Amino acid sequence: METREVSVPGYERVVWGVEGASGYHGIVVIHSTALGPAVGGTRYWKYPGEAAALTDGLRLARGMTYKNALAGLPCGGGKSIILRDGCLEREKVFRAHGRLVATCAGKYITGEDVGTSPADMEFIHKETQHVAGLQGKSGDPSPHTARGVFRATQAAAQFHWRSDDLRNKTVAIQGCGHVGYYLAGEFHRAGAKLIVADMDLGRVDRVAREFDATAVTPEKIYSVSADIFAPCALGGILNDQTIPLLQVEIVAGAANNQLLEPEHGYLLQQRGIVYAPDYAANAGGVINGTCIELLGWDAKRAQDKVEAIYDTLLKIFEISAREQIPTSRAADCLAEERLTQSVMAKI
User: Fold this and answer.
1) Secondary structure of the chain: what % helix, strand, coil (to 5)?
2) For residue 13, what is the enclosing H or E element?
3) CATH class of the domain defined by 142-282+311-336
4) Looking at the whole model, is its pTM more than 0.85?
5) pLDDT tens, 116-146?
6) Does residue 196 sit in helix, strand or coil?
7) What angle do CA 175, 181, 230 make, to 5 degrees?
8) Nearest 5°: phi and psi at 156?
9) CATH 3.20.20.370 at 2-64+78-125, yes or no
């Protein structure tokens, strides 16, 4: 495998790997190991080129640093991406990725993310021990991510409506993949009404059938009349074009980097929409996997920490209200405070 390092200010390591035999083309981004080894999943996605993949990787890795700090985990932040290009043999590609992860010598631990599965993590594990989300251990993080987002939504409801009862509330879910499916189940069991959209009609049909949801086309999900909008697809979907279309009072979803730019947090605030910052809301999967596989906790203790996302979000909303700043900025402030406290405690 050919590798090359890229120097990016503010990041500890960025390394590309290319392997002709397997068709592998990937990148590992380590943002920070100040709190411990960088933890973050592997995304398998089709990008228009290296520049787009790098931009996504940098944003995701930084988000993982803040996510882990906010969750109180002894981990830094990182992310990796495999550029999807045609029909490649998964085992060869993910084993090649495992070899790139291995070059980080334990400073980066990967796991499942968009486009990957516990089975893919097993392929990576054949080349490196620095991988979580394995079958028979913490497994698929999706149900835990969904549970965390549900608890974050309840916290937003408690803050905004003074009740976290979601019965008869209407939730518009964008994206019915692994996390979106489990999140739909959470809302359905809570008595909420669902409106869903996804590019994959099979996913939409499954959620509509199992959870009595109403399906709309992807372009209409932004403008449906609902109480809550739950973005569970890709990032950058809250922007100048989409925010004016929203007819909701709360935004809380599982997608990473939902705000296209920081100023879009201010735009949501100006519209009176309560935003549950993504990296605070969607930490359930990494919390569960880290606590079980890296810290050796039992499932009950790990699940209790996922449930505590509710309390973390309430703190963020309180800071936002007190300081009159967007919730996205309040989350950054809380994460940065915890980072500083943890680093100072080690000195």
Assistant:
1) 45, 20, 35
2) strand 13-19
3) alpha beta
4) yes
5) 998 999 999 999 999 998 878 887 889 999 9
6) strand
7) 45
8) -65, -40
9) no
